[in-house]
Amino acid sequence: MITVSALTKRYGSRVAVSDMTFDVAAGRVTGFVGPNGAGKSTTMRMMVGLTRPDHGDVRYHGVSYTRLQHPTRVVGSVLDAGAMHPGRTARNHLEAMAALSRIPARRVDEVLHQVGLDSAADQRAGGFSLGMRQRLVLAGALLGEPDVLLLDEPSNGLDPDGIRWLRTSLSDFAAGGGTVFVSSHLIGELAMFADDLVVVGGGRLLAAEPVAATLARGETTVVVRTPDAAELSRLLDRRDLSITVDGDRLTAKGITLAAVSQIAFDHRIQVIEVTEVSRSLEEILLDMTGSTAEFAAA
Amino acid sequence: MITTTTTKTVGPAVTDARRGATNRIITRTRRHDLAAVPAAITSEWIKLRSLRSNRAIFGLTIVAGVVMSWVLATFVKTDPYDHLPFTVANTFMTATWLTTVMAVIVGILMYTSEVQHGTIANTIAAQPARWVSVAGKATVIAGFGLVLGVVGIIAGFGSAVASGMPMGDLSGAIAATAWGLVLTSLAAVMGLGVGMIIRHSSAAVSMTLVWTFVLENLIRSMAPAGASRLLPFSAANGMLGIRSAGDTATTLAAALSTTQDAVLFGGYALAAIVAGTVMLYRRDAD
């Protein structure tokens, strides 16, 4: 269980993170989403004591990260896939990490096997692909058999097999009671395995809720092809819906396909085609964060 | 736009008994931090020994020791100040000054390479008591500086003997060796401190080299002897008993004792480490 309370960070006059408050439950995969500059990385860095908050704190099972005796045995984090010396082998990289946290050396081979890097254990990290580096930093996060995983864009550079492996690993980790907090700009990917979402924009919390609740924010649109579009529009207008008519094509927002069909049937309106269009999670999140995006294409 | 600061619990609560989670939630104390220093030393030792560049510096130190004694024996032959033939006793530590500079550079790179490659974040995330990691680094780099000094001196001695130099008076050799090793150890620690302050490899190394080979000599040539004797590498020269072409009766009279030089150089090393540690605490770990 992670408790983030009133987390605030300013850089000069710019507020990077403002009064961010949310909890992340154990046994769930929680996605952390928001546009570039939304404050995701700053928040995650504050969550592992790398950046000092100006205000607020983050607690794991009630204890602040920097007060934990062995933080890496409680929280495994991946904030930068490039965080390794290119001249050091994967094994040496992990051995140094294990020694610092007094983690038994046998864990090095275990995690190398777990992330599929057994055969590259004695290769220098400088020759690793981005995907291999992602696996190595993930191995580092798993070294201490933590209860919480904090991952910043962990699927960057992974091939489709690697992404599937990551998705399964994180879901299994959460299914075992672990807490997974993962940021990703691949919202479609995240939607496939995240249970909950924390949505941020402009350094502020926009929502913290189950994925299903976020999906429910997207209004369903029903498109009807009918020769009596004007009549159907008049009937639907009584319900205070958003309706547009273009020839024989009527589009209604905020009503279900079943309801439209019933109204048409009740009033003997011929329907040629009726389709329900649901909005994707990506579209919904873009709408939620759109006005807060710091960088956007022209 | 939805803006909220209300606490929200995401999803249903699930038991946190996973892998004995609650057993690991121990709030650290000063005693825990002290007990963590050996682990930090082990970790830093693994980092140091696992890089080829450090092994290369080790090899370079041997080469420097061998070459310098050989050059003195073969080409220079007589001391330019005393005009007496070189002996093993007065040449075996000639390369120690270079070893000192290399120790400073290794100390710098120990920290700046961590910043450059982002691994400092791993270190700080794993050990929030930042001074513990500094203590681990300082201990390991001091030991490495000592070993570099030993290797350079052995190489210089062996090369001097092999080059056919007479032994000379070796009565002060043990004391000279001891001061030389104190210097190379402290130089490595000072380098670590400089690296922690500057944080950028090439900037820190080039600034150190410019200071050592250019600025300090310029200052020494212009400043009064009473002031220039307080410069860090004047103290280093004093510890090694090195005389310079610029020495006059006044500068020699103002020279500090070897112990004073060692205390002064140690003070610089300590100041660099303390300043670096304060900055490490104040800065975010980028």
Could you please describe the fold and organization of this structure?
- The complex is a heterodimer of chains A (298) and B (286).
- By secondary structure, chain A is α/β, with parallel strands linked by helices.
- Chain A has helices at residues 40-47, 90-100, 106-114, 130-142, 160-175, 187-193, 211-217, 229-237, 257-266, 281-289, and strands at residues 2-11, 14-24, 29-33, 55-60, 63-64, 75-78, 148-152, 179-183, 196-201, 204-210, 221-225, 242-246, 249-253, 273-277.
- Chain A has a six-stranded mixed sheet, sandwiched between helices. Chain A has a four-stranded antiparallel sheet with strand order 2-1-4-5, covered by helices on one side. In chain A, strands 12-13-11-14 form a four-stranded antiparallel sheet, with helices on one face.
- In chain A, a hairpin with a 2-residue loop joins strand 12 (242-246) and strand 13.
- The model of chain A has no long low-confidence stretch (mean pLDDT 90).
- Chain B is mainly alpha-helical and 286 residues long.
- In chain B, helix 3 (37-49) crosses helix 8, helix 4 (52-76) runs antiparallel to helix 6 (96-116) and helix 8 runs antiparallel to helix 14 (258-282).
- Chain B is globular, with a radius of gyration of 24 Å.
- At the A-B interface, strand 2, helix 2, strand 9 and strand 10 of A face strand 1, helix 1, helix 3 and helix 7 of B.
Biggest sheet of chain B: strands, sense, closure?
Answer: none
User: Helix count of chain A, per DSSP?
Assistant: 10
Describe the largest sheet of chain A: 6 strands, mixed
Question: Which spans of chain B have pLDDT < 50 for at least 5 consecutive residues?
Answer: 1-17
Cα Rg of chain A: 24 Å
By DSSP, the count of extended strands of chain A is: 14
Spatial arrangement of strands, main beta sheet of chain A? 6-7-8-3-9-10
Distance between the termini of chain B: 32 Å
Protein structure class of chain A: alpha/beta
Strand fraction of chain B: under 5%
Task: Report the count of strand segments of chain B.
Answer: 1
Low-pLDDT runs of chain A: none
End-to-end Cα distance of chain A, whole Å, is: 40 Å
Give the overall shape of chain B, derived from the CA principal axes: globular
Category by helix and strand content of chain B? mainly alpha
State the assembly state of the protein chains.
heterodimer
Number of helices of chain B: 14
Order of helices and strands of chain B: EHHHHHHHHHHHHHH
Largest interface: A-B, 74 and 58 residues
